[in-house]
């Protein structure tokens, strides 16, 4: 238990620092950045208390906000996907989730891809809606959501492929 | 009572979600009003020192281009200095006495969000205060927002909250600079009287009507003008002289008469 807590605290800090020093400054084509820190929320172990998980996600988002002077937009987006996650887990992994057996290292690629894509899209949509904060510029919001999401999903899948410990 | 408790226990996840989401929205809304975001800003010890370390590494990558910019500026200043004895008018001297400059380095720059901020490595210890202006050698950058011991955040002109007074260089018709969030090289000068003779290619400079920036700091050139919805004012697209995506060395402007001007204005308002 203790080693898992340490591992996740380490992951938390590492992701925040990577996000604010590296991924926030990529600016591909002028404004497209991946928000890789949501890796923490998406691949958090499924058999933990939801309350702890949501509070942790909130502070993860808030830490990123603190560094990027953006108020609470990352916190709001992270809490939203943390709250909605069980529903998507159920629809993507089905019975595996019902029996509490989802191990992200061993699930098949298709299910993982759909699950990651949906959560990333929701996160980015909430994020850019709050950032731009204007209903008249919905096209701008959707455009940013689409481009940044593609970048984030690509990064997330690459990272999960590279760092997964598949037991053959 | 029992039912209320049951309801809370049954929906505790949803209620927690509402609570946390509400707090985030509160922070977001606070950050939309000037000087209000008390807790969530990057001018503090932890974020400042992390950015400082990161900048220590990344600053090496554009040393060359920054050196060129600084050398250009030195050349221009030397020219001014060598020609100074010929200059019989004293206007230059008079306007500069009231303003003190401090140089600073940008340790974080953003230009891709709707509200952009910069972080610079000068703070209270260098007697920097809120609402000081920030410029580079090419033009204006923004206004100081939050300060801590050694760091300060700057509201960039690429920020939907930023409103800086500017005018046409040749006729002094003024308006306010805003940004529509689209391109980091183009900002908008709004509320310019329809009678103003605006031409594409005209220079825009600061107006000196606020106590933050002195007069005639360059901003950019006009590339496009349109009448706004009421058809009484121009909205002008201005191409910035500054490349906001590549800023390293900036100057903080302190207006020595600021407190005097502000207290006078306050008295007039009461």
Task: Describe this protein's structure.
The complex is a heterodimer of chains A (168) and B (270). Chain A has 168 residues and is mainly α. Chain A is built from seven helices and no strands. Chain A has helices spanning 2-21, 39-42, 50-68, 73-93, 95-98, 109-132, 138-163. In chain A, helix 1 (2-21) packs parallel to helix 3. The longest helix of chain A has 26 residues, at 138-163. Chain A is globular. The model of chain A has no long low-confidence stretch (mean pLDDT 86). Chain B is α+β, with helices and mostly antiparallel strands and 270 residues long. Chain B has six helices and twelve strands. Chain B has a six-stranded antiparallel β-barrel with strand order 1-2-5-4-3-12. In chain B, strands 6-7-8-11-10-9 form a six-stranded antiparallel beta barrel. Chain A binds chain B through residues 17, 20-21, 24-25, 27, 30-33, 50-51, 54-55, 58, 61-62, 65-73, 75-76, 79-80, 82-83, 130-133, 137, 140, and chain B through 12-14, 16-17, 20-21, 23-32, 37, 40-42, 44, 47, 50-51, 54, 58, 110-115, 117, 153, 181-184, 245.
List keywords for this structure.
heterodimer; A: 168 residues; mainly alpha; B: alpha+beta; six-stranded antiparallel beta barrel
- The poorly predicted ranges of chain A are none
Helix content of chain B: 25-40%
Mean pLDDT of chain A: 86
How much β-strand is present in the residues of chain B?
25-35%
Structural class of chain A: mainly alpha
Mean pLDDT across all amino acids of chain B: 83
Shape of chain B from CA axes? globular
What is the assembly state of the chains in this entry?
A: heterodimer
The biggest beta sheet of chain B is recorded as:
6 strands, antiparallel, barrel
Largest interface: A-B, 38 and 40 residues
Topology pattern of chain B, helix = H, strand = E: HHHHHEEEEEEEEEEEEH
Poorly predicted runs of 5 or more residues of chain B: 90-96
Q: Count every beta strand of chain B, where a strand is a DSSP E run of 2 or more residues.
A: 12
CA(first)-CA(last) distance of chain B:
53 Å
Total count of helical runs of at least 4 residues of chain A: 7
Global outline of chain A: globular
Reported for the largest beta sheet of chain A, the result is: none
């Amino acid at each position: 238990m203790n080693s898992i807590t340490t591992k996740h605290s380490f992951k938390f800090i590492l992701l925040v620092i990577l996000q604010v020093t590296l991924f926030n400054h990529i600016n591909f084509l002028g404004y497209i950045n991946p928000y890789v820190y949501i890796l923490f929320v998406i691949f958090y172990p499924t058999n933990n208390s939801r309350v702890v998980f949501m509070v942790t996600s909130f502070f993860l988002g808030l830490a990123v906000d603190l560094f990027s002077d953006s108020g609470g937009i990352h916190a709001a987006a992270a809490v939203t996907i943390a709250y909605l996650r069980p529903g998507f887990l159920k629809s993507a992994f089905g019975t595996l989730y019902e029996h509490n057996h989802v191990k992200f290292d061993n699930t098949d690629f298709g299910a993982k891809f759909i699950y990651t894509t949906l959560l990333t899209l929701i996160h980015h949509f909430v994020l850019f809606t709050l950032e731009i904060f204007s209903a008249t510029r919905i096209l701008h919001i959707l455009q940013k959501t689409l481009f940044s999401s593609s970048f984030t999903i690509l990064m997330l899948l690459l990272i999960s492929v590279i760092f997964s410990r598949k037991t053959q | 009572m029992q039912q209320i408790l049951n309801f809370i226990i049954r929906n505790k996840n949803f209620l927690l979600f509402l609570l946390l989401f509400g707090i985030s929205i509160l922070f977001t809304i606070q950050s939309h009003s000037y000087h209000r975001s008390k807790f969530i800003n990057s001018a503090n010890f932890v974020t400042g020192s992390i950015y400082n370390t990161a900048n220590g590494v990344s600053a090496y990558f554009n040393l060359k281009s920054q050196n060129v910019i600084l050398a250009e500026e030195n050349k221009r200043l030397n020219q001014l200095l060598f020609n100074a004895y010929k200059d019989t008018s004293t206007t230059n001297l008079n306007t500069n006495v009231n303003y003190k400059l401090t140089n600073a380095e940008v340790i974080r720059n953003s230009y891709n969000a709707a509200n952009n901020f910069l972080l610079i490595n000068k703070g209270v210890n260098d007697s920097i205060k809120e609402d000081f202006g920030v410029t580079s050698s090419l033009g204006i950058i923004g206004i100081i927002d939050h300060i801590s011991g050694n760091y300060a955040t700057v509201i960039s002109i690429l920020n939907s909250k930023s409103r800086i007074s500017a005018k046409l260089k040749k006729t002094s018709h003024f308006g306010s600079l805003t940004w529509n969030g689209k391109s980091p090289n183009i900002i908008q000068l709004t509320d310019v009287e329809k009678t103003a003779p605006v031409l594409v290619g005209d220079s825009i400079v600061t107006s000196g009507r606020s106590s933050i920036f002195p007069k005639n700091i360059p901003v950019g050139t006009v590339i496009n003008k349109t009448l706004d919805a009421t058809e009484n004012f121009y909205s002008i697209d201005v191409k910035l002289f500054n490349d906001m995506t590549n800023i390293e060395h900036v100057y903080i402007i302190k207006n020595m008469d600021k407190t005097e001007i502000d207290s006078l204005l306050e008295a007039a308002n009461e």
